[in-house]
């Protein structure tokens, strides 16, 4: 009997070690922006939100985005992801509507497929996430999101399974 209990405890401990932390509820649906106009992403963006564990924080970063061949993007800058500053540089190959696959070493810690979940109609704000929920963030041309776009970003993240209680927005 004691051996069975010990075995059950051992197996449950092993199973817990294999789970990947993330900011999305596992198994929930996620949608990318199917009508994304990639050329309108060109320019400088400032980070407006991130997901971070309690107590972790870093200064919001930003990205410069340049469209490249075949609907892909070239990005460079620094982002705060999961409360840690990450240098980002390289190309994101188009992998579907509103979906981009990073390539190269310039995406350490941000190498999951990037999905544009939302862009406002003026392409002033973006919400980017990953199917795994490994990270998610919002970008804005000016920095902090105005109240209406902040509310929209929260709704989009929530709709796509993100735990918005863990979102940290720039004020």
From TrEMBL:
Keywords: Signal. Residues 1-19 form the signal peptide. Gene3D superfamilies: 2.40.128.20. It holds the Pfam family Lipocalin_2. Residues 110-166 form the Lipocalin/cytosolic fatty-acid binding domain. This is Lipocalin family protein. It comes from Szabonella alba. The lineage of its organism: Bacteria, Pseudomonadati, Pseudomonadota, Alphaproteobacteria, Rhodobacterales.
């Amino acid at each position: 009997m004691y051996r069975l209990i010990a075995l059950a405890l051992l197996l449950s401990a092993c199973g817990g070690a294999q789970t990947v932390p993330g900011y999305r509820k596992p198994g929930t649906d996620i949608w990318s922006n199917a009508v994304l106009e990639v050329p309108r992403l060109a320019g400088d963006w400032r980070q407006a939100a991130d997901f971070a564990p309690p107590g972790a924080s870093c200064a919001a970063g930003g990205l410069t985005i340049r469209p490249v061949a075949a609907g892909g993007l070239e990005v460079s800058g620094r982002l705060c992801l999961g409360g840690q500053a990450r240098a980002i540089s390289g190309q994101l190959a188009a992998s579907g509507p509103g979906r981009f696959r990073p390539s190269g070493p310039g995406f350490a810690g941000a190498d999951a497929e990037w999905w544009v979940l939302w862009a406002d109609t003026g392409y002033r704000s973006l919400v980017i996430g990953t199917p795994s929920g490994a990270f998610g963030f919002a970008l804005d041309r000016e920095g902090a999101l105005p109240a209406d776009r902040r509310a929209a970003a929260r709704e989009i993240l929530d709709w796509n399974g993100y735990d918005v209680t863990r979102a940290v927005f720039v004020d």
